[in-house]
Design goal:
By secondary structure, this protein is mainly alpha-helical. The longest helix is centred in the middle third of the chain and has 31 residues. Mitochondrial transporter that mediates uptake of thiamine pyrophosphate (ThPP) into mitochondria. Keywords: Calcium, Membrane, Metal-binding, Mitochondrion, Mitochondrion inner membrane, Repeat, Transmembrane, Transmembrane helix, Transport. One of its GO terms (biological process) is transmembrane transport. Its main location: mitochondrion.
């Protein structure tokens, strides 16, 4: 019998050291930590995230969820149970992990072009530019999963009367994507609504990163490098609230365009300006802020848990870097 080849202990140790060196690199660590942060934050606020979408896509004649946040959550529970709270969250996590990973990773990558030396202060405007560019990058990579998540979130929510048998036969993530591709125009169907999405995501992500780092600096005691976990949570909540409030109308437009061709909807927008004109004419300016209450309620736990889990995971990965003598 042939001898089983073995890896020399020294060679094995070298491979492990190289892997730890790769994982601990700032951009790679930020990429992995961003994925963890996205999954944690979205799962924490899944019921409010879905309720926000249901509020956003309503229009004149379609107001099954025209009610308070509490009543909306109760209706969701009564109609669909626990699955109603989590509907679309699996797809959302599959989307948000690469989305958040690319966003955090690309932000740290773009920072290299603006920092005179690692760790130096870039200034608010450069943070805004880096964050906005990172947001656009992440959207372009993961948008088809976002539009499918929106479809899954609303397809069972009483917007088009369905029997129990029909609800049980509702398509899942991949089948929904295939149906959209084959019946709604191919690849362009999977990117429907991307323009208002990019228009909203760029300033949102830019404001989020800029505000977080500014508030984080303010919360860091003199002589320390990092604020406490509680202060990081507060900084994340503040940055998310500021960014969401400033860019929320773009989020409403994104959701409306994502379901523009769905059965049971009462609108067919021709473009961004037609959508703005129609929404304001039929629903008033407040139509651009539908769903903002559950959105703001979810921002604090979502962004706080996102930033905290990101920093904890990133810091852990960075500490895996082996000592120079072990390389």
């Amino acid at each position: 019998m042939a001898a089983i080849p073995t890896i020399p202990p020294r060679h094995y140790g070298s491979k492990v050291s190289q892997m730890r060196e790769t994982i601990s690199q700032p951009v790679f660590a930020a990429f992995c930590a961003g994925g963890v942060a996205g999954a944690v934050s979205r799962t924490v606020v899944s019921p409010l995230e879905r309720l926000k979408i249901l509020f956003q896509i309503q229009s004149v004649g379609r107001e099954e969820y025209k009610m308070s946040v509490g009543k909306g959550l109760m209706k969701m529970w009564k109609d669909e149970g626990w699955r109603g709270f989590m509907r679309g969250n699996g797809t959302n996590c599959i989307r948000i992990v690469p989305y958040s990973a690319v966003q955090f990773g690309s932000y740290n990558f773009y920072k290299k072009f603006f920092e005179t030396s690692p760790g130096t202060d870039m200034g608010s405007f450069r943070r805004l530019v880096c964050g906005g560019t990172a947001g656009i990058t992440s959207v372009c990579f993961t948008y088809p999963l976002d539009i499918v998540r929106t479809r899954l979130s609303i397809q069972s929510a009483s917007f088009d009367a369905l029997t129990k048998a029909q609800q049980a036969a509702l398509p899942g993530m991949w089948k929904t994507m295939v149906i959209m591709y084959t019946t709604e125009g191919g690849i362009p169907a999977l990117y429907r609504g991307i323009l208002p999405t990019v228009a909203g995501v760029a300033p949102y992500v830019g404001l989020n990163f800029m505000t977080y780092e500014l508030v984080r600096q303010y919360f860091t005691p003199d002589g320390d490098k990092n604020p406490s976990a509680v202060r990081k949570l507060a900084a994340g909540a503040i940055s998310g609230a500021v960014a969401q409030t400033c860019t929320y109308p773009f989020d409403v437009l994104r959701r409306r365009f994502q379901i523009n061709t769905m059965r049971g909807m009462s609108y067919q927008y021709k473009g961004i300006f037609d959508a703005l004109k129609t929404i304001i004419a039929q629903e008033g300016v407040k139509g651009l802020y539908k769903g903002i209450v559950p959105n703001l309620l979810k921002v604090a736990p979502s962004m706080a848990s996102s930033w905290l889990s990101f920093e904890m995971t990133r810091d852990f990965l960075v500490t895996l870097r082996p000592a120079s003598e072990d390389l």
